[in-house]
Design a protein that fits this description.
The protein is α/β, with parallel strands linked by helices and 338 residues long. It folds into two domains: 223 residues, TIM Barrel, CATH 3.20.20.70; 92 residues, no CATH class. 36% of the residues lie in helices and 20% in strands. The chain has eleven helices and eleven strands. The strands form two sheets. An eight-stranded parallel β-barrel has the order 1-2-3-4-5-6-7-8, surrounded by five helices. The protein has a three-stranded antiparallel beta sheet with strand order 9-11-10. Strand 4, helix 4 and strand 5 form a beta-alpha-beta unit. Helix 3 runs parallel beside helix 4. The radius of gyration is 24 Å and the shape is elongated. The two termini are 47 Å apart.
């Protein structure tokens, strides 16, 4: 994973299809955060690529996430195949003629992220009926079907309002942009708040330094975000986590569930701080640094309630288990003392 905000998905449409496993591993080794798989059926778009069997064969070759972009007319018919092939997220097109909601529900029911993609001329409002089922919005900045096309600036303007469409997933909801993304366009889409940049042909130019291209694209996207949306402040790296509170295990678990119900992931780890009379130290609740302000706004008051609940729990426990006092006393003994 990278150290900034932007994530890069390497599209393998223009990779060496005769040596695809090698190119996938090379892209990941050079800094790609995930692999973007363009599946085309020759009907929904005028091109034919690969299917679930190819993806399944690639899956053991890397641990990087697989994002499948199904440019096919009837994804509902094949969705289980792509899930079983090892796709971590699956995005279908809102312009298909079959019912969309059952397919999105099927993807989510199997624990995968579900997305909808829009052609350049399709308005963002087309996604509104499915908002609650979306983890991903994929904004197309070229007409789907072929790699190497020129980037369209006007459709990219849907990126910023798409973030609002995903407000129910404040941390793990993602806006992707696909089509003509390279070092020339990365700063522009980064300045619109894109989360994942799908980069294809720019990564597979013979003789070019792929790792340098990936670093440039991500750095320029972060720079665009910094100066266009973040008042000149560098974006918080997505991999940074911060401590929100420290509580006894049963109370920490309940509070963790409450925070996660609002779409913010939480990591619960046993800490090295206060020892409780039950013989267990407090557990730390960590939240993404990028969501720290949001979590404070939502849960600061409840945190005070939980901390008071923890004190009351300790008192009750000590009354019912007097031997617990020795555990706490031993923990408070100065290190090296008797």
């Amino acid at each position: 994973m990278g150290t900034g905000r932007a994530r890069l998905a390497a599209s393998i449409l223009d990779a060496d299809l005769g040596n695809l496993a090698y190119d996938v591993r090379r892209a990941v080794r050079n800094g790609a955060d995930r692999i973007h798989l363009d599946v085309m059926d020759g009907h929904f778009v005028p091109n034919l690529t690969f299917g679930a069997k190819t993806i399944k064969a690639l899956r053991p070759r890397t641990e990087a996430p697989f994002d499948a972009h199904l440019m096919i007319s009837d994804p509902g018919r094949y969705i289980e195949e792509y899930i079983d092939a090892g796709c971590d997220s699956i995005t279908i097109h809102v312009e298909i003629e079959e019912p969309i909601e059952p397919t999105l529900r099927a993807i989510r029911a199997r624990g995968r992220a579900a997305g909808l993609a829009l052609r350049p001329a399709t308005p963002l409002s087309a996604l509104e009926p499915y908002q609650s089922l979306l983890d991903i919005v994929l904004v197309m900045t070229v007409e789907p079907g072929f790699g190497g096309q020129a980037f369209m600036r006007e459709p990219a303007k849907k990126i910023l309002p798409a973030r609002q469409l995903l407000r129910h997933r404040p941390v793990d909801g993602e806006v992707h942009v696909d089509g003509g993304v390279n070092r020339e366009t990365a700063e522009y889409v980064g300045g619109l708040g894109v989360d994942v940049l799908v980069v294809g042909s720019a990564l597979w130019v013979k003789g070019h330094d792929q790792g340098r291209e990936i670093r440039l694209v991500k750095a320029l996207a972060d720079e665009g975000y910094q100066y266009n949306l973040n008042n000149g402040v560098p974006p918080i790296p997505r991999d940074n986590w911060v401590r929100f509170t420290s509580l006894p295990k049963p109370i920490a678990k309940a509070f963790m569930a409450e925070i996660e119900a609002g779409g913010v992931p939480v990591i619960m780890l046993r800490g090295d701080g206060q020892m409780n009379p039950d013989g267990l130290r407090n557990y730390e609740l960590l939240v993404p640094a990028s969501a720290q302000i949001l979590v404070e706004e939502r849960h600061a008051g409840e945190r005070d309630v939980r901390l008071a609940e923890a004190e009351a729990w300790r008192e009750i426990y000590l009354r019912e288990h007097p031997e617990g006092a020795a555990v706490v006393a031993a923990d408070r003994r100065p290190s090296g003392g008797r």
